Amino acid sequence: MSNNWQCPKCDCRDYDTDTIATTGSGWSKIFDMQNRKFTAVICSNCTYTEFYRGKTSTLGNIFDLFTN
User: Which InterPro entries has this protein been placed in (predicted)?
Assistant: First the structure.
């Protein structure tokens, strides 16, 4: 994340980040494959959260299929 991120709600510049994975639609939903990755940026002051799409790998998606 950029050092110049600023919360659009409270103008705070302090934030935490986390990563989440979600299922898409179709076959990934049926097999509970979490093939969508996002980075969450959470404001340290008001907890406003923005999500940014991340990259996924084919190998990671296959591993997720067999470890659910």
Answer: DUF2082_NA-bd_Znr
